[in-house]
Amino acid sequence: MEVERIKEIVASRLRNEGIEEWALVVERRRSSMIKIANNVVTVVQGWNAAWMELYAAKEKKIGYVGSMVSDEGSVSAALEKLLLSLKKSEPSPIYGPLPRAHGSPLSDLVDPRIVEEPNTVLEISSKIVDEAQRLGVDRIAGTIHFGYRERYAITSTGFEAVQPSTFIQVYVRAFRDENSGHWAWGSTRFDEDSLLSTVRKASEFATLKLPRQSIDPGEYQAILSPLVVANLVNNLAFMASGMMVLMGASMFVKHGIGSKPFSDNFTLIDAPLEKSLPHARGFDDEGAPCTNKPIIERGVVRNLLHNAKTANYFNSETTGNAGLVMPIPWNLIVESGSADLDSLVKDVRRGFLVLNNWYTRMQNWIEGTFSTVSRDALIYIENGEFKALSKQMRISDSFANIFSRIEALTRDSYDVWWWEVEIPTRAPYMLINSTKFTKPI
Prior knowledge:
By secondary structure, the chain is of the alpha+beta class. The chain has helices spanning 3-16, 72-88, 112-116, 118-122, 124-134, 192-206, 226-239, 242-246, 308-313, 341-346, 399-404; strands spanning 21-37, 40-58, 61-68, 139-155, 160-176, 179-187, 212-213, 218-224, 268-270, 293-297, 300-301, 332-334, 350-364, 369-382, 385-390, 394-398, 406-418, 421-438. It is 24% helix and 41% strand.
């Protein structure tokens, strides 16, 4: 269904209902996914779909709906849900008028190979399997998801633009005997070497020849891989949303702008203008221009993320991070350091290299306390040397502790994007001088 027709239906119906303020986002996406299991391509799927989000306000009452759309009937059904929610709503204390926006799309976000030569990407799956077998793993599993999307933003203030882009997301798990390794990568562009590097990195950890050893829980040094750093800063950046702060579900309620809860070594940037990262864009869902900005700069809280509503509530300005429902980060960059991984390992007296993690759960939002469980290789280090592979452990700590105890970061960073890292993130390895490891259950 054409976006112009969706716009006509929305504008006409809302006008008839006396609603003059609204924002419409439509994302049209053509994508394919390859799934690999036990060294075999098991599934190749394709999608051609459109998703609509609609925000409307009347007399400071706010309504929102999100829905897949395929025809005029589906658009009308979504509109009925929105109008019903408006009728049932009370005036919102966080209402703020939509901005008179002037954002413009970024150029050069479309890789023609992904659009015009999808078989080039499809054929890489066999190379991934061949590379894994060459590196001596027993089997691999993973996915390659890639495609082309157009994201339209149209508002009642007169803004209308479309951001085209391509994307590719890859993750691979490699298995050797009882050991497993994992790596992930995401980009706006197809790059064969970066794609194959996912299986190389996963295989490197899966084929470590180390004894298995049960390590007692306790306080240890920790080297967090880029996968783990990316997962943790995703959670931290979501807490920097003005809406999360307003709801009291954020450590930034306690640590406001200008405070310094973290190490001088820690800088975290929201980077929508970084063209190689998959969520790059020139304007947000309200049409405001996107900008790169530090959330944390050398340990200091510099910015919360705002859309029109939260900016109005905090007497601030939109940061180009709308989210029709709430402000969100786009891409994230953790500023790298000057070390290499070998030097980080040599600096560990007793600790772990944590390759991967999942089940990250908040224990106390205001204090920023959380737990997360290690996954795949968990390498015990003693006196600067890899000594053993440990069973799963749980990191139970706080973001303030973790990111205030950074001793060093590698100069090399990696672009991470997979289902445990929803916001594409460029991150280095990070050495933490002390964190608490507990039993996983």
